[in-house]
Write a structure and sequence with these properties.
By secondary structure, the protein is α/β, with parallel strands linked by helices. Helices cover 47% and strands 16% of the residues. The protein is globular, with a radius of gyration of 16 Å.
C-alpha cells in the first residue's frame, strides 16, 4: 500500500476567544459523532491570534506554512465560535479568573480572529461560523447545528 492510498481523515478544529464555549461544544460534538473525527480545541488560528495580540514575535509564516500543508493533506474544518455580546466573555473571564486573556483584550482578539479568516480565505478548508447567541448559548444545539452545517 502506498501512502497516497490512505484515506483522508477529517480534522475539525474549534477556534474562538477564551471562554466562548469551544471545549464544551467540542465534547458534545465528539459524543454526537461517536468520536469519528480528529477534533482539536484550538490550533493555528489561536496561535496566530495570540501572536498578534500579545506581540510575541514568533514566526507567523511557520504557522501559515503548517496550515497550508494540513489543508493539502487533510479535509480541514474550522469551527469559529463568536459572540456579538462581548460582555458575556468579559464576565466569564472575570468570574473564572482567567489569567491569559484580560477582559479588555476580548474585542481586539475577536477582530484578529476575523482578520485571520479573511487572510486564509484563499486556502482550501471548510468554514463554519457560529454566533452562539443564535443558539441561546446552548452547546448541545450548537454541536447539532455544526454537524448539520458540515454535512457530517
Amino acid at each position: 500500500m502506498k501512502i497516497n492510498d490512505l484515506i483522508k481523515y477529517d480534522i475539525i478544529i474549534f477556534e474562538g476567544v477564551d471562554r466562548i464555549g469551544k471545549t464544551s461544544t467540542k465534547k458534545i460534538f465528539e459524543k454526537l459523532t461517536n468520536y469519528k473525527y480528529i477534533v482539536i480545541d484550538r490550533m493555528l488560528f489561536t496561535a496566530i491570534a495570540y501572536e498578534k495580540l500579545k506581540n510575541r514575535n514568533n514566526n507567523i509564516d511557520y504557522y501559515k506554512k503548517f496550515f497550508k500543508s494540513l489543508c493539502k493533506n487533510y479535509n480541514v474544518y474550522i469551527i469559529y465560535l463568536y459572540t456579538e455580546d462581548l460582555n458575556l466573555i468579559k464576565n466569564r473571564i472575570i468570574d473564572e479568573k482567567e489569567e491569559i486573556l484580560k477582559f479588555y483584550e476580548v474585542e481586539r482578539l475577536q477582530q484578529i480572529y476575523f482578520s485571520i479568516f479573511k487572510e486564509f480565505n484563499n486556502l482550501k478548508f471548510n468554514k463554519c461560523l457560529v454566533k452562539i447567541e443564535d443558539f441561546y448559548n446552548d452547546y448541545y444545539l450548537i454541536a447539532k447545528y455544526i454537524i448539520k452545517e458540515l454535512s457530517l
